[in-house]
Structure to design on (348 residues):
């Protein structure tokens, strides 16, 4: 068997519908005629490990592919090594097929930034940034060359509808984390009263506020390398700086942008989190897919009050399908041989 499912939880709410998972279809791809736009999202890909997911990813003929961070595992101050690691990805036949047919965008996380859990203190961030932009083949006139960090936005259209993607940088400006003294946990949350700690930095916060004031898009997708809604675990998360998490919540709830959801990685597992709130007319989804080349199957799984899916700890990637007229989005967790672990539909 090529799957292992954890924590089967009851479905919460009426706006999502769980599809067949381990007991149902293994590799069926929904008819393209029913979907206007297909996005694939993935993270945590070690260039030195087997990479069996490129073929199933390409099979979906995605309109867009988004790297969610840890696009390589470099963990080095040696920029020649980091470039060589990127070159291994670029040389992979499966990734070359994807590049030939699909627009690719993305952000980074700690291992392609250069050091595990590193933040603003990392001395090689500018050199790593240049290699990251080279890897994504970002044009030299792009705004990212003129400012600190790799945050960016990208817009596209399908069937006369606009989709906007906001890619955050949770590394370049992030302040120190509070180390935990509890076994099995790496970090704890700073007091919520502490507003001095930042994840995004002032310039990126101002930029994000402006991006979320844009009401022209029919859907707005925020890409954040670390999880937002799941705030119970002891690893990196927005919840480690609760004042920052509250700030993002406030921006989302007061945004002019429509139909916002989040994509996150980092965790070497996949899950769907959902929060219902009076601040939005639709549920806020944080869709986590992580572990293209390695996951930690035996690790314990923390509680997550927002989880509406099984936790998938096998190799995985995310497929997000849009029916733009019906304002419906299908969130799929898929794995090796294109196996469908989970599907949740959200009506906006």
């Amino acid at each position: 068997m090529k799957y292992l499912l954890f924590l089967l939880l009851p479905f919460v709410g009426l706006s999502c519908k769980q599809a067949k998972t381990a007991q149902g279809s293994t590799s069926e791809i929904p008819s393209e005629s029913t979907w206007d736009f297909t996005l694939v999202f993935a993270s945590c890909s070690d260039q030195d490990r087997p990479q069996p997911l490129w073929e199933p990813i390409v099979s979906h003929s995605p309109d867009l592919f988004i790297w969610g961070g840890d696009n390589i595992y470099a963990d080095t101050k040696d920029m020649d090594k980091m470039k060589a690691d990127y070159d291994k990805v670029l040389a992979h036949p499966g990734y070359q097929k994807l590049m030939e047919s699909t627009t690719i965008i993305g952000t980074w996380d700690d291992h392609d930034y250069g050091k595990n859990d590193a933040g603003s203190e990392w001395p090689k961030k500018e050199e790593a940034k240049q290699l990251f932009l080279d890897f994504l083949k970002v044009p030299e006139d792009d705004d990212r060359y003129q400012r600190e960090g790799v945050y960016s936005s990208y817009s596209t259209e399908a069937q006369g509808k606009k989709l906007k993607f906001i890619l955050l940088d949770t590394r370049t400006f992030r302040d120190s984390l509070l180390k935990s003294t509890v076994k099995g946990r790496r970090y704890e949350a700073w007091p919520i009263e502490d507003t001095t700690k930042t994840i995004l930095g002032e310039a990126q916060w101002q930029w994000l506020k402006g991006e979320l004031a844009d009401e022209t898009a029919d859907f707005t997708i925020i890409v954040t390398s670390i999880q937002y809604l799941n705030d119970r675990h002891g690893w990196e998360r927005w919840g480690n700086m609760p004042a920052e998490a509250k700030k993002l919540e406030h921006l989302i709830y007061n945004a002019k942008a429509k139909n916002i959801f989040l994509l996150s990685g980092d965790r070497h597992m996949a899950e769907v989190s959902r929060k219902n709130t009076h601040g939005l007319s639709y549920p806020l989804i944080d869709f986590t897919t992580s572990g293209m080349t390695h996951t930690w199957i035996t690790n314990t799984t923390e509680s997550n009050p927002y989880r509406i899916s099984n936790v998938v700890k096998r190799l995985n990637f995310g497929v997000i399908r849009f029916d733009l007229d019906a304002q419906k989005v299908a969130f799929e967790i898929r794995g090796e041989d294109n196996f469908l672990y989970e599907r949740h539909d959200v009506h906006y």
Remarks:
- The mean pLDDT is 92.
